[in-house]
Amino acid sequence: MRSQRLLLALLPIVTGIVVLVAWEAVVRLNDIPPYILPSPLAIGAKLIEDWGTLSSSLWVTLDITLMALLAAIVGGGGLAILFAQSRWVEASLFPYAVVLQVTPIIAIAPLILIYVHDTRLALLICAWLVAFFPILSNTTLGLNSVDHNMLDLMQLYRARRGQVLWYLRLPAAMPYFLAGLRIAGGLSLIGAVVAEFTAGTATGGTGLAYRILESGYRLDIPRMYAALVLLSLTGIVIYGCTSLLSWLVLHRWHESAVRRDR
Amino acid sequence: MRKAFPNGTVALDGLDLAVRRGEFLSLLGPSGCGKSTALRLMAGLGEPTAGTVQRPAGAKLGFVFQEPTLMPWRTVWGNVRLPLQMAGLSRGDAEPRVADALERVGLTSFARAYPRQLSGGMKMRVSIARAIATQPDLLLLDEPFAALDEITRGNLNDDLLRLWQGHGLTIVFVTHSVYESVYLSSRIVVMAPRPGRVVADIPLPPPTARTEEYRSAPSYVADCRTVSAALKSAIHA
């Protein structure tokens, strides 16, 4: 049982190593030049060589991503709580939240960049627009999925509105919110990158997406890959953190996080 | 009293019922006879379409639903403390009451468990503990044991009787089981459907010693027969 779990954890790592070795071999055996396809080792070397530039770009992108995620939690969660207070508010605002969600961010980004002169703020708004919706829709669903008998019970206890929210609706919505958060974490990174691409070189951006653009112009393909690796790793770490948070909050009571005894 | 729902269903019509202090009243009837609706109206969950529900001023209510209706994110202790918390009791003031309620349903050692770790019968006990934690004068139970197996059900019946006898509670118990109602009650009200109304009001002998022997006593069997007959005529009424 234990060894099987270990094997399951090792398998993806083994797959990755096999693919990397094959990649390295294909590049070396065919003498493929690095400006067409760099080998994994060359990419690794570039990562170390340009670490100064790349790491500062990583911080810029990470800063936008995390701020956007935070804003998405506050904005999406806050709106969901507002919606739960009144069907009227929900009915009047929810369609527009959907409109914001279904309009591709890449089409809105240029407009935002025109109106908002502070580039960082503009990027933040773009990333937020992409990330807030899953939190909003999931949390709204969660807040409205409360067991009716529970609501009756709270009414019998003469619980105030705020008490019903705090003691019943919010905990009941927690699994839904956390599922939304996991999606939003990835989306805020995507939003940040898309916005950086749109802002491009014109605004003198410095994030990882900008590094990819810039390296592309210079045909520095290994550096494009190095920046890409950092973006992927960032996404994985964000997903890992939100999953861990979800487990920490839910593992004692929610079915999704409880291991089945068989 | 009359209760009609927005979809046109008349759940109750001409219901007139007085619950006496200290009695164990069972509302017995086939499904759809409005017994649960009547219980909910007694609790103040919803208003009658016509007529009134009168409760003694300051009377405290406990309510047990058909499902345990526990908060999965709270421990057993936390669930039982909930009504006290809503009433504004501090942690310290609530503690002895929660402990007492858990002891009375025999769950003291499970205080720190989460509902998902408990069996159906134990969850129901938690639900009862929560209802009595506020030390209610009137305990309302809506088919609380319908989903439980025979043995668990029997044990919980005895627990409930002990609670009732020991604390001067008034209990209104909704059920569709003749045997359960005769075993538990000091009075049975039989209801008929379409529209829900009272068709029989049967007083039972004082519940002195309800033990296993009582279940096979001739008087118990005779009472069951009377109540069964009343229920049968209610269904065909």
How would you characterize this protein structure?
The complex is a heterodimer of chains A (262) and B (237). With 262 residues, chain A is mainly alpha-helical. Helices cover 82% and strands 0% of the residues of chain A. The model of chain A has no long low-confidence stretch (mean pLDDT 90). Chain B has a domain at 1-59 and 164-237: P-loop containing nucleotide triphosphate hydrolases (Rossmann fold). Chain B has a six-stranded mixed sheet with strand order 4-5-6-3-7-8, sandwiched between helices. In chain B, strand 1 and strand 2 form a beta hairpin. In chain B, helix 2 packs across helix 3 (91-104). The mean pLDDT of chain B is 84. The interface between A and B is medium-sized, with 22 and 20 residues.
How would you describe this structure in keywords?
A: 262 residues; mainly alpha; MetI-like fold; 2 domains; 10 helices; B: 237 residues; alpha/beta; two-stranded antiparallel ribbon; 8 strands; 39% helix; globular
